[in-house]
Design a protein that fits this description.
This protein has 265 residues and is of the alpha/beta class. The strands form two sheets. Strands 7-6-5-9-8-10 form a six-stranded parallel beta sheet, sandwiched between helices. A four-stranded mixed beta sheet has the order 1-4-2-3, sandwiched between helices. β5, α6 and β6 form a beta-alpha-beta unit. The longest helix is centred in the C-terminal third of the chain and has 18 residues.
């Protein structure tokens, strides 16, 4: 484990703050920071050049947790120790991974939508697991941007960050903006905005997804707002069942776009 003598262990105030950042959106928003938990997410943050501000590692951390903490410390970031009790209290999971890094948020607005050719717009996505999965799929399929519209889950919710497995650092994330404004901005740039619907739309292969495209996803149960300015509706053909989970649907659409782009080369 990195050398952490008692005077370098986290204070009660630091532990309280760390817990608040993990559990409260208002605490994250007030400071403009969020928490990366676990070696995989912290390593991804380092690999993508994310600004890390502090690091905490438990005395009972595993070798891979200690190794990533040493990587963070080597960049000059302050490192603090957590005793076994403190590490268990900080994490918000049943079996927390006792290595945490505080990172600066990247707060991007509509002006960051320029120059994209594949994007995902989630208008009112509520589930953190779905948001994290869609970040992974967007990064894997080559999308540049994922939008979590106003009313969606917090992009820096620790459950979202964990579920993304580090992919949250590989794509631009725009959040908190009204979906109407986002779609109007994309339309002005010539991006085709296609709404994913459970029924009534055209199959994804009927669209030319090699052109700049944004797939628009709605609420998990209520779907897409009918007033949104869309260029078309896309429905994934199914042999059985009513609809796919929103994260699965978004993934299928992103990879159809990726397939079309590969085969056109």
């Amino acid at each position: 484990m990195p050398s952490t003598p008692p005077e370098q262990f986290a204070t009660k105030a630091e532990i309280k703050r760390l817990k608040a950042l993990l559990r409260e959106r208002r605490a994250r928003d007030a400071e403009g920071v969020f928490v990366c938990e676990g070696p995989r997410v912290i390593a991804a943050a380092l690999d993508h050049g994310v600004e890390l501000l502090e690091c905490y590692v438990g005395v009972d951390a595993t070798a891979d947790m200690r190794a990533v903490a040493e990587r963070v410390a080597a960049t000059g970031v302050p490192l603090r120790g957590l005793d076994t009790y403190a590490g268990a209290r900080v994490g918000d999971t049943t079996t927390p991974q006792p290595v945490f890094a505080i990172a600066a948020m990247q707060r991007l607005g509509p002006d960051s939508l320029g120059g994209l050719d594949l994007a995902l717009v989630a208008t009112r996505l509520g589930d953190p697991g779905n948001a994290g999965t869609l970040m992974r799929s967007a990064a894997a399929a080559g999308a540049q941007v994922i939008v979590l519209g106003k009313g969606s889950v917090d992009a820096y919710n620790p459950k979202v960050v964990r579920a993304s497995a580090g992919a949250c650092f590989a794509v631009r994330i725009v959040e908190g903006e009204p979906a109407m404004e986002i779609l109007e901005a994309l339309g002005a740039q010539g991006v085709s905005c296609l709404g994913a619907t459970a029924a009534g739309g055209s199959a994804p292969e009927t669209f030319d997804l090699r052109a700049p495209t944004a797939f628009v996803l709605g609420h998990e149960t209520q779907g897409i707002d009918p007033d949104l300015p869309l260029d078309g509706a896309v429905t994934i053909p199914m042999a059985a069942g009513e609809s796919l989970n929103v994260a699965m649907a978004g993934t299928a659409l992103l990879f159809e776009a990726a397939r079309q782009r590969r085969t056109s080369q």
